[in-house]
Amino acid sequence: MPKTHIIKDVFNDDNASGVALKNKVLKKLIFKYLDQTDASSITDLSKELLISVPKTTSLINELIVEGLIKDYGKIDSTGGRKANMYGLVSDACFFIGVDVKKYYINIGLLNFKKQLVTQKNRIPYKLENTQESLNQLIQIIQGFIKEQSVKKDKILSIAINLSGRIKNTIGYSFSFFHFQEEPLSVIIQNEIGIKTFLENDSRAMAFGECNFGEVNSERNVIFVNIDYGIGLGILINNEIYYGKSGFSGEFGHIRFFDNEIICHCGKKGCLETEASGNALIRKFKEKIGQGSTSNIIKKNKMLDNITLTDIIQAAKDEDVLCIELLAEVGEKLGMGLAAMINVFNPELIILGGTLSETGDFLRLPIRSAINKYSLSLVNSDTELRLSKLGEKAGILGACLIARNKILSVL
Amino acid sequence: MPKTHIIKDVFNDDNASGVALKNKVLKKLIFKYLDQTDASSITDLSKELLISVPKTTSLINELIVEGLIKDYGKIDSTGGRKANMYGLVSDACFFIGVDVKKYYINIGLLNFKKQLVTQKNRIPYKLENTQESLNQLIQIIQGFIKEQSVKKDKILSIAINLSGRIKNTIGYSFSFFHFQEEPLSVIIQNEIGIKTFLENDSRAMAFGECNFGEVNSERNVIFVNIDYGIGLGILINNEIYYGKSGFSGEFGHIRFFDNEIICHCGKKGCLETEASGNALIRKFKEKIGQGSTSNIIKKNKMLDNITLTDIIQAAKDEDVLCIELLAEVGEKLGMGLAAMINVFNPELIILGGTLSETGDFLRLPIRSAINKYSLSLVNSDTELRLSKLGEKAGILGACLIARNKILSVL
DNA sequence: GTAATATCATAATTTTTTTTATAAACAAGC
DNA sequence: GCTTGTTTATAAAAAAAATTATGATATTAC
C-alpha cells in the first residue's frame, strides 16, 4: 500500500480536465474559504464562490466523504431557519513546529484547524554547529513524534526555526549545520521521514505573532526579535517577506556606528554591536569593570557567566544599572527602527524575543528614539507594541509555516 | 445624456447575479489576461480560465461588440491551423501621466494598450508651494489635453507625480499645495473634469522603470531617485509598496551621520545631508571656497547659481573635482543602500533620477560601498543597474498608475 | 504536389448547472 | 399557540455549458 496523504488524494488534479478539473479547483476554493473563516454555511460559500446552492451542496458532500470537512451542526441564527455550518475536520492531519533557541528547544503539534494540540517547552539543548548537535536535534524531534497519540503518517510536515541566513525555498542553512552539500531540510527529512522545511527564527516569530497574537487588521508589520542578536521578521500584506533568497531582515548588520567593535558577522559598526543582548552583556561587564555596582554581582554571580536571563531578571527587580543599560540599548535600537519606519511606513512594530520581557524598560526608550530619529508624519502612523505571545510565537509560527507549505500550494 | 465610461458600462456588475454576474467576472478575467499577454487565442483563454472553447468564444464576441477587444487576425503558428488572436482595442480609452519636477513638467498620453501615444517633455514650470504654481500646473495639463486629437471623454484618468509625502489613497499631498482641507487630487479633478490621482515621484519612476524598462523577471526591486533630494520607490512582488499611509521610501531622512547639517526635514544627520544632489552642490561650493579648482568655475559661472545639471555635465567632461565629489556622495549613498540590501534582499537596485546620468562615476563608488557595508551573502544577490528610461520613467510610471487605478479595481 | 498530421472554429448533442418552486425550520409578533 | 416573515434545504424544471463531432485551415513529410 503506497503511502499517500489525504490532502494530495483529494486535491491532486494532474489527470483531471474539463468539469472534473473545475470541481477540483472549486473544492480547493471551498477549503481555502473554510480555512479562513473557521466555519461557513452553504449559502455563504455559494455567494463567495459564485456557484449555486445545489452545486455547493454537492461539492461539500464530496469533501465530507473524503474526510476533510464536516458538518458542525446548526449555529447561525439570522431570523429564519438555522443554517448548517461546515468546517475543517480538526484531526484530518497534523503539523510540527520546532523552535531552536541557543540553549533549548520548543516544539509543538498543530492540527488541521490551526489549533496547537501539544506543546513542549524548554527542552534542554545546546545549539552548536556540530554533527552531534544536529543529531541531538533530530532525536528530540523523533522523541516528540513518538510521544504523540497521533499516527506518524498523519503528520504531513515539520518546520524548524533557526537563526541566521536561511534559503527557505531549498531549505539550506548558511549559519548552522552546513557540513554537506545537501540542504539541511533534506538531511533531516530523510532521517525523520516527514517533509521538512527550514525557516529563519525571526520570520517565524513574526508570522506566529501576527496570526495568533493580538494583531488584527494590520497587514504591514515589523517584528523585532531582540535576543543575543537582533533579527527582523517583515510581514507585507500579511505575508512573510523573504526577499530574493530569503535573507531579508538582516537588520542587525546595518552599519550605523563608527565604533571599533567587531561584529560576529566580521564587519565593524553594525547595529548589533550597540543594540542587542550581546551588546547589553558587554556594556554591563564594562560598567562593572569601571566600578559600577549591581544587584546581580552582589548575588555572587561570576561576571563571566552572566546571561541575558540574569539581566532581564535584574531589571525586573529594579536594578538601576541594568535599567540604564536597557535604556541605552533601547535608544540605539530605536534609532535603527526609525530607519525602518521611514522606509516601510509600517502600521505596527512588535517587540519580541527574550529581551522584550523587560517591557517598558526597553519599549519607552525605543519609542522616544523613534520619535527623535524618524519623520513625525510617518512615525505617528506606527504603533509600538510588546509581543503578546512571548516564547510561544516561535512554535506557533513554525507550526503554521509547516502547515502553509503543504496547504498553500493547493 | 449622462457621461459614462465604456469600461464601467461593460464591467459594472452591481445589478447582476447568478449567471449574468459570473459572465461579468469572466469578462474581467479575459480582460486581465489579455492585458498581461498583449494577444491570445481562444484556446489559450479557454485553458487559462477553465472554461470551454464555445463559452470563451461567446464572451469574446460580446467584448468585441462592446468595443474593448478586437480580432488581431491570425498570427500564431504551431503546426496546425492558425488561431485567431484577440487583444485590447488600443484607442478604447486613454490615460494621462504628469511628472512634475522642480523646474519643468513632463506629460504623456497612454492608450488602452499601454502604448505612449504622445509625450511632451521639459515644459518650463517652477514647482513652488503657491496657488499660482498650482494654477499653472492645471493650465499646462488642460493645454495638453486640448492639443490631443483624442476626445476628452475618452481620457479616463490622470496621475500626477509629486515629490514628498503623499497619501495616495485620498490624493492628499503634505509637501505641496496643501492650502485647503480638500485633497489636492480632488481640487485638480474638479478643475479639469477628469478623475485624478496623486503619486510620489520616486514610486512612479520605480513603477515605470520596472514595467517599461529592462526589468524582466525581477519582482523585488528598489529604485533610487537621485536628484536634489533622494527618494526610494520600492516594488515588492512587482507591485508598488506604499506602507500604511503611502509614506514608504523616506530613505533620505534616515539618520546615518553625526554631522550638524540641518536637513530640510528639520532633523540632523539625515542621509540626504551627505548623499544627494543638494549635498553635492554644498560640497562643491565648500571645496571651491577652500581653493579647489573646477572647469565649471573657469567657465565664469556664478558659484551661487550652480545647478545639478552643471555638475553632471562637468563630470561627463572629466572634471576631476566633480568626479571626486560624486565618488564621495556615491560612497555615502552606497552605505545607505547597503542597509536596504540587508533588510530587503532585493534582486535589483536601479539608480535613477537626474544624478544617475553620471553613470559609472556614481555607480561604481555605490557598488563598492555596498560590498563594504552589507553582508556579502546578501549583496551578492543584488544587481545594481542604471536606469534605462531616464527621464521617461516618471511619465510612463504616472500613465500606468492612472491606468491601473481605473482598471485594477475591476 | 499530395497525403498525413495537427490545430482551430463551429454545429450538434449531451451533460452539468442554475433557476425556480416547494417544503421545512426557526424567530418574532399578536 | 398560531400566524407571518425569513432563511435554509431539497426537488423539479429550465437554462447554460461542456463534450463530441465535423469541416476548415495550415504545416510538414515524402
Number of helices of chain A: 14
Compute the CA-based radius of gyration of chain A: 24 Å
Largest beta-sheet characterization of chain A: 5 strands, mixed
| Strand residue content of chain A | 15-25%
CATH superfamily of the largest domain in chain A: ATPase, nucleotide binding domain
Q: In the residues of chain A, how many domains can be counted?
A: 3
Give keywords.
410 residues, Nucleotidyltransferase, domain 5, 5-stranded mixed sheet, Arc Repressor Mutant, subunit A, 3 domains, DNA-binding, 14 helices, homodimer
Describe this structure in words.
2 copies of one chain form a homodimer. The first copy, chain A, is an alpha/beta fold. The first copy, chain A, has 3 domains: 6-88, Arc Repressor Mutant, subunit A, CATH 1.10.10; 94-206 and 394-407, ATPase, nucleotide binding domain (Nucleotidyltransferase, domain 5), CATH 3.30.420; 217-387, Nucleotidyltransferase, domain 5. Chain A has 14 helices and 15 strands. In chain A, the strands form 4 sheets. In chain A, strands 6-5-4-7-10 form a 5-stranded mixed β-sheet. In chain A, strands 13-12-11-14-15 form a 5-stranded mixed β-sheet, covered by helices on one side. In chain A, strands 1-3-2 form a 3-stranded antiparallel β-sheet. In chain A, strand 5 and strand 6 form a beta hairpin. In chain A, helix 10 packs across helix 11 (320-344) and helix 11 crosses helix 12. The longest helix of chain A is centred in the C-terminal third of the chain and has 25 residues, at 320-344. Chain A is globular and about 80 Å long. The model of chain A has no long low-confidence stretch (mean pLDDT 90). Chains A and B meet through helix 2, strand 12 and helix 11 of A and helix 2, strand 12 and helix 11 of B. Chain A binds a DNA duplex (30 and 30 nucleotides) through residues 18-19, 22, 41-43, 51-55, 57, 74, 76-84.
